[in-house]
Amino acid sequence: QVQLVESGGGLVQAGGSLRLSCAASGRSLSSYDMGWFRQAPGKEREFVAANRWTGGSTAYADSVKGRFTISRDNAKNTVYLQMNSLKAEDTAVYYCAAGRKPTLARSLEYDYWGQGTQVTVSS
User: Fold this and answer.
1) Strands (DSSP E) along 17-76, which ranges?
2) 24 or 53: which leads in pLDDT
């Protein structure tokens, strides 16, 4: 079992930055593919970013390319999402997820999920 806990969300003005963290316990994340997803009120959960544990592949949603960066620190068993140039439309609950060889953008193929952290961007 892998337990994931997100942190770092909050209220920020448009154009600002936040860094989300996803800390894991139970197992090492070094052999899991990791993803970030988000869900805004009244909308379906959507893919944001993900990377393979091998480091060979990273993917981003078109809406965040060039603004968000996913990274991981295996020594700390933590995955990060650096979010820059935030927009009001980035407001959502952000979730991290872990899986073994999922299709990176498909939430159903991830095995473990955190409880989410709220990001609110004021315009």
Assistant:
1) 18-25, 33-39, 46-51, 58-60, 68-73
2) 24
Side chain identity at residue 45, one-letter code: R
pLDDT of 43: 96
Task: Please give the single-letter amino acid code of residue 52.
Answer: R
Give CA–CA dist 17/81, Å, rounded. 11
R_g of the chain computed on alpha carbons? 13
Q: Which residue in this structure is represented by tokens 């592949």?
A: 57
Average pLDDT over the chain reads: 95
DSSP letter (8 states) at residue 12: E
Lookup: tokens for 95:
């979730």
Q: Are the C-beta atoms of 10 and 120 separated by less than 8 Å?
A: yes
Confidence band (pLDDT; 50, 70, 90) for 55? confident
Residue 78 sits at the vertex; the CA angle it makes with 66 and 36, to the nearest 5 degrees, is 45
Question: With contact defined as beta carbons under 8 Å apart, do 94 and 6 qualify?
Answer: yes
What is the phi/psi pair of residue 117, to 5°?
Answer: -135, 135
